[in-house]
Amino acid sequence: MRPANVVTSVADILAGIAISGILTAGFAIPWLSVFYLCVSTACLYAGGIVFNDVFDAELDKIERPERAIPNGIISLQNAALLGSLLLLAAIGLAFLNSTASGTLAILVAIFALLYNKFGKHHSFFGPLNMGLCRGFNLLLGLSIVPEMLYSHYYLAVIPVIYIFSITMTSRGEVHGGTAKNLYLAALLYGIVICAIAYFAFINDRLLWSLLFLLPFTFMIFKPLLKAIKQPVGKNIGAAVKAGVISLILMDAAWAVTFDALILAFVIAALLPVSMGLSKLFAVT
């Protein structure tokens, strides 16, 4: 279920909540809604990853025999049941917040399944498909105030671009890849960083945003540059792992950009949690 990755999906929700403005509007914080959305996204991510292994069971016998299904730790049927229960629980929890939240959870689940079954085999639509999952996930957090979806929906484009680049890069982590894709990933990373910096600038929060954007930039580019020099599977896998976990710092930058400084530090505090889990469980 990739616990380290699940933590990053919770960071997405917290970033969306920060963007909604509910923390700075002077209203009481709806803690129950925060709980529903955080657990919902955790179940969505875990369920999607489980189905990734379900659909890849035959291929994993060859490429990743250490995974739970080909290794015989769990049967294919039980894995599919677990994935189904996680996705259904995610959708139910999201509907407890609002119809908009429930609808977004359904979209994330659908696109996750589409990626696992079809999208991952396509060089363009696969990364786009996975990017949409993260984009909708940010909006799921934003949906804590459903009305804000109408005015801030376009911000979902940023995580779509970022995850597009990570997913595209990940295609070379088994057999190695080409520097061309990695250069494109570097360009897309740069676009994401500049976009967040732009919103921070117009909101007069650029200096605070740099507190998270600078380590974010370092964390994603250091392994990526190494992979560009030597595009072998091990280096590409490290770049992908760093890209996924670094999402937490990107989400912290989003939070401080929308004047939620305390929440930004709370989100950033998830980074060591995710990094610790990444040492115990696979990230890619």
UniProtKB/TrEMBL annotation:
It comes from the Bacteria. The keyword Membrane applies. GO terms for cellular component: membrane. PANTHER family: CHLOROPHYLL SYNTHASE, CHLOROPHYLL SYNTHASE, CHLOROPLASTIC. Its main location: membrane. GO terms for molecular function: transferase activity, transferring alkyl or aryl (other than methyl) groups. This is 4-hydroxybenzoate polyprenyltransferase. The chain crosses the membrane at residues 7-28, 34-55, 76-96, 102-118, 125-145, 151-170, 182-201, 207-225, 237-256, 262-282. It is a multi-pass membrane protein. It comes from Pedobacter soli. NCBIfam families: prenyl_rel_EboC. Keywords: Cell membrane, Membrane, Transferase, Transmembrane, Transmembrane helix. Pfam families: UbiA. The keyword Membrane applies. It is found in: Membrane.
